[in-house]
Amino acid sequence: MNRIKYIVTPDVLASKGIRLANFIIDYIVQVILGVAMGFIIGIISELTGSYGFIDFFFNSGRLMEFIFGYIILLLYYTTIETLTGRSLGKFITKTKVVLYDGEKPTFNEILVRSLCRLIPLEFFSFLGEDGKGWHDSISKTYVVDESKFEAKKAAFEDLEDIGRIGE
After folding, report:
1. Whole-model pTM?
2. Is residue 167 situated within a structural domain?
3. Which of 22, 55, 151, 157 is disulfide-compatible with 89, CB 3.0–4.6 A?
4. Which residue, 90, 94, 92, is CA-closest to 113?
């Protein structure tokens, strides 16, 4: 007998408002991380007397600022979503990232998701009709309301268990 797998349905997806809240919270976290990293680099430079990196950074212009921001974005999302399936914004809004079958994404899927966030103006893409961003569509991941998702998946698995009683 073929086992039917759970599939994420639109009724458990996080709303556009929640997605916007996730973006704002995570953006604030990234700014704080950037300031903290700059502070740490400054302290290290002061302690060692070596100001080469600081001079390079401040004399490189806007391009270096974008690269620094992108590095923080990649490290933040890839690390936290790989380990927990959620960013800080998702912890606060009680949402999480899952695959189409409700499973936790792998490192590679999260990396693709994070890299897609580097697409210019990508952060507006989730405001479309279906509420999925390009980083969701390309990586084939979903952001779900955790309580709705867990309840629906548990109900599905309970029905599966009932179906196997007669086997």
Report:
1. 0.83
2. no
3. 22
4. 90
Q: CA nearest 19: which of 118, 104, 142, 159?
A: 142
Q: Is residue 1 part of a domain?
A: no
76 lies in some domain: yes
Any idea how long the chain is? 167
Structure-block tokens of residue 155? 């109900």
Residue identified by tokens 């002061």 is 46
The first and second tokens of residue 63, run together, are 């391009």
- Give phi and psi for 76, each to the nearest 5: -60, -60
| Residue range(s) defining the domain that contains residue 155 | 19-162
As for how many domains the chain has, the answer is 1
Whether the per-residue pLDDT at 137 is higher than 80: the answer is: yes
Say if CB 30 and CB 72 are below 8 A apart.
yes
Neighbours of 159 (CB within 10 A): 11
For residue 41, being part of any structural domain is answered with: yes
Q: What is the pLDDT of residues 59-94, one digit of tens each?
A: 777 888 888 899 999 999 999 999 999 999 999 999
